[in-house]
Every structure is written in C-alpha cells, then in structure tokens.
What does this fold into?
Amino acid sequence: MRWWPRMHMEAVWALVRAALLTAMQYRASFIAEFLVGALSAAGVAAPLFLVYARVPEIQGWTLDQALLVTGFFLLYNAFVSGIVEPNLGSIVEGVRTGALDYLLLRPVDAQLVLSFSRVAPTAIWELLAGIVVVVGALMRLGAPTVADTALAAGLLMAGLASTYGLWLLVVCTSFWFVRVDNLRFLLSAVTDAGRWPVSVYGRGLRIALTTVVPVALVSSYPAMALLHRLDASLVLGAFATAGGMLVVSRGVLRLALSRYASASS
Amino acid sequence: MSAGAPEERVWLGSGPGARVTHLIRAWPAVLRVAFAGLVAYRAEMVIWVLSATLPLVMLSLWNAASTGGPVGGYDQLAFTRYFAVNLVVRQLTGSWIVWELNWAIRKGELSPKLLRPMNPLVYNFAETLSALPFRAGVLLPLVGALAWWRPEVLFLPSPTVFFAFVASVLASFILAWTVQALFGMLAFWFEQSMGFWSAWFAIWSLLAGYFVPLDLFPAWAVAGTRLLPFYSTLGAPIDVLLGKVDPASTLATQWGWVVALSALAALTWRTGIRRYGAVGA
It folds into this structure.
C-alpha cells in the first residue's frame, strides 16, 4: 500500500493529464483563444492606465502597484476558468443528468475526481498574461526580497484555496436546488471586484471581500506582501480563511454526497 | 391544434402583407408565452440581472480616484451618476441570443424552431422584450441602494431630454440584440463561435463606455470612438441623459447603425440558413 497523500497526488496528476489530452484535441480554437485572452487582459488593465493618466495615486497605490493586483487577479481568473469552473460546473450538470454516479463509483476520493477531472487549456493565455503583468510591474518597482516573494506565493495559494472552497460551496447547493448553473455567473460577477486594490472600496465591502467572498485574498494580499505592506494579523487571517473555507466546503460536499440520491435511481 | 380553423387559414396565408398581419396578431400571444417562460425560471432571472453589476465595481475605482478632486471634469457625484445610468441602460438593453443561437445551431435544435410559423429570431426578440419588466424590477433595489448612499445622484431630466433618452435606449436595445444575433449566426460557419463574441465583448467593454466614460479617453480619440457601433449600444444613451452630447446627431448615428446592422443581420440569416439546410441538420 502506497503512502496515502502520494497516492492522491498520483491520482490528481493522472486526472489532469487525461483532461489536458482531451482538451488539446481542439487545436484551432485553442490558438484562436490567444487573441481573446490577450484582449481580456488588456481590458482588465486599460481602465487603470486611463485613471492613472490623470491621478498619480489612488488610496496609496501607484499605477505599478495597482498593476500587481491586476496581475494576480488575472492569475486567479486563469485558475477559475482553467480548473475550477470546468470541473465544478460539471458537478451541476452531473447532478441534473445523473452522470455523477459514474464519477462517484471510482475508487478515489470523490472530491479529487470532482475537482480535477477537466482542464480548460485556453486559460493558459490568461495565466501567461498574469505572469507578464506581475513580472512587468515588479521590474519597474524593483525586485522584492526572497521572504516577501515566498509570502506572496503562500498568500496566492491561500487565496486560490479560499476561492476554490467558495465555489465548491456554491456548487454544492445544486444537490438541493437542481438548477443553479447561473450561480456561477453571479459568483464571477462578484469576484470581479478583486481586480482593484481592496483599499478603493468602502469599509463594509472591504470586509466582505476578505471574508465572505475572499477574492481580495487572492489579488490584493499577494501584492501587499510583495510591497511589504502586510502585518502578521492579516497574514494569519488569510491563512485561517483559507483553512476554514476548505474544511467547511469539504464538510458540505460530504453531506451533499451522503444525501445524493442519483437522478437515475 | 385542430388544423381546420378557418380564421387561422386566412391569416397564415402567403405574401408579405399576410405575413405582417400574422405577425401583428401573433405578437401579444408570443409576449405572453415568453413572459410565462421567464416566470418559471424567476430565480435564474434574478441571478442574471445581479451578475451585471460590473459598473458598480468600475464606479468604486473612479470614486476612489476622485476623492481628491474632479478627474477630467467628473467629480464623485458625476461618476456615481454616470455609472448608475450605465447600470440601468445595460440592464434594459440586455439579451442572450448569442448563446441561444450558438447552441441551437450547433446542436441542431434550430430545426424544430424553423418549423414554427414565426422566424426564430423574431421569437427571441419577443422573449427579450418580455424580460424587460423583470430587469426593471431588479434594478429598483440596486438604484435604491445607490440613491441611499448618495441621494444627490437623483435628478429630474427635462421632458425633451427624457424622450431623447428613451429613443436612444430603444436604439441601443435593438442594436445590442442585433449584434448578438450576428455573432450567434457565426455558428453557421464556425464550430466554435463563442470566441468571437468574447473578443468583441472585450473591445466593447472599453469602447462602449462600460468601464470608463468615453470623454476620459485622450482628446484625439473621443470624437472617433463616438461614431463606432460600440458607443451606440451603451454610452450614447448615458451621455444623452446626462447632457454630455448633442442628442440629435447621437440619435442619428445610433439609428444609422440600427438600419445598417439589421440589414446585415437579415442578409446573414438568409445566407446562413441556406448553409444550415445544406448540412442536413
């Protein structure tokens, strides 16, 4: 018997590889999506350029610093459209059609199969755009220290984990209310607020964006880490939110699965 | 339905005159059916409407930028007004035909719809119209919240401006729907046509005034961007209501685009439907 986490890593890798192979069949549309990715990235960044052409800084953020946030927001978008949405979206579909049964029969942890069976490879363009924006902004701001970089990477992971948890929670409601596919639109509309530094929002929204819809954790916090603006309490709060989201969403998923009565039986 | 009802025979007759009479008589029924369909999925409707709150996200950026004083002639109140009207116009001119057409053409679901005695495009247009009461209803809490946050945002336009605004919104409504229909029809020729729509949307968000009022663009770009179809679908009615542009010439540009793109859509539909038949779906 192999070590438990290692077996899980192998399962995840096998799932992702199979998903990539399936998606790469559509080569032409994959290349065409490059244009779309570049345009959307430009669309996210353009308002910043227009604002900063007129004011030097907003709530303590200069253009380059705000672009860092935008870059991390693009990375988050790539994660959502590349992995979270295709997989968790298919849960909703699976509950409605009964196709979920086949996934649940597999001898691996259900959450892994449900979360990593599909990849939308077009998200790679958004991923690249995000990297370009972050690196470009850093080149103008000056390189951060190793410790700050590590902290930023950790916070990015924590932010991705929290938003993944939130998406899972929303999708789990489909076990009770079958028609919630559009909740995904709502969620991506709400998380759109993550594209600006969180300090441009009023106090109430700011709290909501770090706890209820923790999209600020994934965009503003890593940028603040690179700029050396975070204190320990914020960092702890971010990791606590991530842990809490993961535990709660896993609990809700298990509860949902235990009540799942299949569309076919 | 019994096939022999004589009156139906009369108005289902052929010829352009009979077709128009038929359309006029069927219209109220179509609106009623479409409305009933929407009521069945009302929770979904609320989500659709709420998911178009991006103007408020944009407002928060500009609001923060103008705390120290006006930016390019816009102070905080002007930005709030701009994005409030933006939210309203975007809601009232919303449609979904690009997704529906794209899906129906690829999956062959268009075939049964073609058998109906009414063009599927006209039917969808009726559906889109009948969604308006819902969209208006969900606007109330959003605009109400804005008014509560900043009461001075409310203002009463003069009757002339108001009528110009209504005519402008109507043009935007038709234009936005027509553009979506055009992109949806691309599915006749391309298997994956949604990419084109995403690309259009990305350019549109910037040039329509969705993210940024167009007069904040560099001076040399302002006049040119106002002539493009993007502006006619969203920015034009906002600027007409807020008195930023001359209503007469703006309306002329908008309705010019309505005529041109509707003609293009009709032509595309005819060519495309022939191709669809040729595939044998």
Observations:
- Chain B has 15 helices and no strands.
- Chain B has two domains: 1-40, 42-279.
- Residues 1-40 of chain B form one domain.
